[in-house]
Specification:
Distance between the termini: 103 Å
Shape: elongated
Strand content: 35-45%
Radius of gyration: 39 Å
Strand order of the largest sheet: 7-8-9-10-11-12-13
Helix content: under 10%
Length: 351
């Protein structure tokens, strides 16, 4: 009889324990007060260092993982083929396995959009890549190396914007940026004539007159610190015909161009003249632009640097045989288009 009572008592205690676990719906390992937000709370804080252990997530090959029947959403496994964690980002009917950790990279499911912290051992360089438009290849769009240099754009092609470690902004390869350098004209001997525009009483502009022979204006140009050293520069004349007539105008640009050298001052070379003919007819008071080099080929900037100087003269000789426009031509503006490869320069007189 005592044995029978003992069995009944034990059964009641077991049922009471199971009922308590179901009601609390929490399990604590290493703690009798599991966190209220967890179903399972494993606490190893009170254990000695040698006694502390981790938790093993189920391990399986990629084939085994993909063969799991109706995997629950958020199901987590460790894939021994890829040596990384994967979880089901879909549902049991349509599982979508996502890689949680993949060595030194974070990538989408088809590996064409990704972030890699290095592509070779101990490279210490972050690579940002996205899929191309067709989504069949990966293209590197941005890098940050271990010196702090950041590149954005067509990295493989060398056409990018580079932020150097000191913050200097540089444009490389085909990342061309252009600006124009506008100049002011000086009156000299045989000068063009300053007259009211269109014969009115408003603003005045310089007119290179007909039947007056050689008329000129002079100016100087200093290449700015953003100039891409060694590249060509392109002078353009903005002007306006004073009357609607047929005929051509011959424009001439004299220039001499020299660098600044703080160690050995350089002398200006012999002047060069570029002659172009603007073909008419022309309509009065219209805005015309004429490139002051043949075919808009520009001035050769080989070896030229920032702070280099040009001394120039713009002139028209209405008596020349190629100048057949029998009226005045008014100057609106003259500028040089030049290519930029940095925002300013690192030094006062050097890139």
């Amino acid at each position: 009889m005592k044995t029978s009572n003992l069995r009944v008592t034990s059964l009641l205690m077991l049922l009471s324990t199971l009922f308590s676990l179901q009601v609390n719906a929490q399990v604590g390992i290493g703690t009798i007060t599991p966190n209220a937000s967890s179903m399972l709370d494993i606490d190893v804080s009170t254990l000695d260092a040698n006694a502390k252990k981790g938790i093993l997530i189920p391990r399986m090959t990629t084939t085994e993982r993909e063969a799991i029947a109706s995997p629950a959403s958020s199901l987590l496994v460790f894939d021994t083929t890829s040596n990384s964690f994967w979880f089901n980002n879909g549902d049991a009917t349509t599982p979508v396995w996502k890689e949680l950790v993949s060595g030194s990279s974070i990538a989408d499911s088809n590996e064409n959009t990704k972030i890699e912290v290095e592509q070779s051992p101990d490279q210490d360089k972050i690579h940002f890549s996205t899929a191309n438009v067709a989504k069949d290849a990966s293209i590197e769009r941005m890098t940050i190396d271990n010196t702090g240099v950041t590149k954005i754009g067509d990295i493989a092609g060398g056409n990018d914007t580079k932020v150097e470690a000191d913050g200097t902004l540089v444009f490389e390869g085909g990342a061309e940026v252009w600006d124009d350098l506008r100049v002011s004209m000086d009156k000299g001997s045989s000068s063009a004539s300053l007259e009211y525009f269109s014969g009115g009483s408003g603003g005045q502009i310089w007119y290179f007159r007909n039947d007056k022979g050689l008329e000129t204006l002079s100016f100087q140009v200093q290449l700015p610190h953003s100039y891409k050293e060694g590249t060509r520069i392109y002078p353009h004349l903005h002007w306006t015909p004073r009357a609607t007539k047929v005929g051509n105008i011959e424009w001439n640009l004299d220039y001499t161009w020299v660098n600044y050298d703080s160690d050995t001052p350089l002398a200006f070379p012999a002047k060069v003249t570029s002659t172009v003919v603007a073909a008419g007819g022309f309509t009065e008071n219209t805005h015309m632009i004429t490139a002051l080099t043949a075919g808009n080929g520009g001035l050769d900037g080989d070896g030229k640097k920032i702070s280099s100087i040009l001394i120039c003269r713009l002139w028209r000789n209405s008596g020349d045989s190629q100048d057949t426009y029998e009226d005045d031509a008014g100057l609106l503006s003259l500028d040089f288009h030049y290519q930029i490869d940095t925002v300013g320069s690192r030094e006062p007189f050097a890139k």
